[in-house]
Amino acid sequence: MNTRETETPSQNACIKEYKPKEVIVAEADPGDRFFVILKGEVEILQNGKSIRILKEDDIFGLENYYLKRPYTTSAVALSTARIAAYPAVMIRDLIYNSPQLIEKILQSVMLQLEQTTQVAEEYIPLENVVDFNEQIFEDGEVIIAEGTTGCEIYQLIESEKGLSVTMSGREVGTITRPGEFFGEMSALLKQARTATVRSNGRSLIKMFQGDNLAAVISTYPQFAKVLIETLAKRLTEANSKIAELSAAIK
Question: Is the pLDDT of residue 234 over 70?
Fold first, then answer.
């Protein structure tokens, strides 16, 4: 490898300059270093297929250290690139001694995670990684019955008048927003359904099998994102209702 190498003892980093198309790290190499791009562009590949393009200040290779496994991707210089390689074990010291670098690492990792999620949305449709079916429910028809068990997670696709949610015969809420999930609590907690959900008018519902939820989330992170948003929305609504009840009692 025809590169220029410079040691920087103060940072314990090995800085190299790579020519275009030169391999920086290859799949299956030991995952004992992470890399910071000081200059240039780097292409990340897996099984010979391009995953993303990284630029100055981006970081790569750190996830393999935490997962305690060899590199699962390759990195190739797209242009003349200057790269700093840090021993992965240094990450703990950097947290305390180099907060600016840690901030860059966090920003880079979050951006790459967002990009990966977007790629998953575009190229890995949800129906390809989780079993589902769609069903039409007529006006007044029960979708979920209180007290029953099941691992299905439901998603509202469209509805004429939304869905009503009742507990012990009393209406406690409605579901009207297309794309909103429901029934996820019972699937996640493996408990009996705590409410009845009924269609108001004709509704189209998508039903997912939640028994392999962990595998679905690892393959399709956007699914977890939407579930978290749904749970957060429910928590906010519950907090508001509790506050209203508390004010009424006083």
Answer: no
Per-residue HEC secondary structure of the chain comes to CCCEEEEECCCCEEEEEECCCCEEECCCCCCCEEEEEEECCEEEEECCEEEEEECCCCEECHHHHHCCCCCCCEEEECCCEEEEEEEHHHHHHHHHHCHHHHHHHHHHHHHHHHHHHHHHHHHCCHHHCCCEEEEEECCCCEEECCCCCCCEEEEEEEECCCEEEEECCEEEEEECCCCCEECHHHHHHCCCCCCEEEECCCEEEEEEEHHHHHHHHHHCHHHHHHHHHHHHHHHHHHHHHHHHHHHHHC
Domain 4-123 in this protein, CATH class: mainly beta
- Each domain of the chain, given as residue ranges in start order, spans 4-123, 128-249
Superfamily of domain 128-249, CATH level 4: Jelly Rolls (2.60.120.10)
Q: Which tens digits make up the pLDDT trace of 2-18?
A: 444 433 334 577 899 99
pLDDT in tens, 30-67: 878 889 899 999 998 877 878 788 888 888 887 766 66
- Take residue 201 and report the two structure tokens written for it: 């008018």
**Cβ-count burial of 101 within 10 angstroms (0-12 exposed, 13-18 middle, 19+ buried)?**
buried
Two domains, one topology: 4-123 and 128-249:
yes
pLDDT, position 7: 37
